[in-house]
Amino acid sequence: MDDLAFYGLHPVAAPDGEGHSTWRFEVVRALCSGLGSLFGGCGLGAALAALEHDTGRPVVWATAQFLQFARPGQFVDLEVTEVVRGGATSQARVLARVDDREIFTVLASLGRRDLPWADTWAEMPDVPPPAACPPRPLRPEHRGTIAERMEARMANYRVIVEPDGIRGDGRSALWVRNPWGDDARAAALAILGDYVPSGLGQATGQRHEINSLDNTLRMVQVHRTEWILADIRIQALRDGFGHGLVHLWAEDGTLLATATQSAIVRAVRPREEP
């Protein structure tokens, strides 16, 4: 499955002479969070897929600001603009709308430059391989959502059924099977970049309702791997907002990308049966 098929993306208007185009996808439950709305990482991932297809260049950096919810059955239009196209780098933006409501905004840089030096200073945590890690159990509200679609195994992760209030060290890790084979591109990694909020419960020992405010992905390289380690690091939680980052690693220890997020954090509210 490629990125367009995963998100159900199709072009509505091809790029014109000024770098504008429009793509569309339907919000289905398989792209939603347990709260019943479009998962932020899926929104960013769809935008990055459209950007890479339009520009023919790989994502270097992208950030999404989430403004409103999109619900199943609604259609999201991605208005893509390649604002500046240089010899090696493009600066672009995407406005995502449902009808006349702006749902999220994406800013991005794309391109590739030749440079003889490359290195990595971040260090991958020492965790068991995917086959040695137990699967992450799903809560009932996650059935049929993106959480069920993304097979995850607990490398350094605790299941919080009832809040115990035991403070963690802010570090947790999940192995996640690559959603389209072994090609770890930006449109796939954007989903895992939105895993930072899951680490907040790991850090506090509490269950929370969390809405992402943003998702910023910084690509290091596209690399083939069947499993991706989401190495989550929570930095702080205060005044109802949480902040953290995640390093995304291939099975062989290659750093694929890093992502940062801030999120609104609430106490769990009683749910009404549908």
Describe the structure.
- The longest helix is centred in the N-terminal third of the chain and has 16 residues, at 40-55.
- Strands 1, 2, 3, 4, 5, 6, 7, 8, 10, 11, 13, 14 and 15 form a 13-stranded antiparallel beta sheet that branches. A two-stranded antiparallel ribbon has the order 9-12.
- β13 and β14 (241-250) form a beta hairpin.
- It has helices at residues 3-7, 40-55, 146-149, 186-193, 198-204, and strands at residues 10-13, 20-26, 59-66, 75-85, 89-98, 101-111, 152-156, 171-177, 183-184, 208-212, 214-219, 223-224, 227-238, 241-250, 255-267.
- The protein is globular.
- It folds into 2 domains: 1-111 and 142-149, Thiol Ester Dehydrase, Chain A, CATH 3.10.129; 150-274, Thiol Ester Dehydrase, Chain A (Roll), CATH 3.10.129.
- It is mainly beta and 274 residues long.
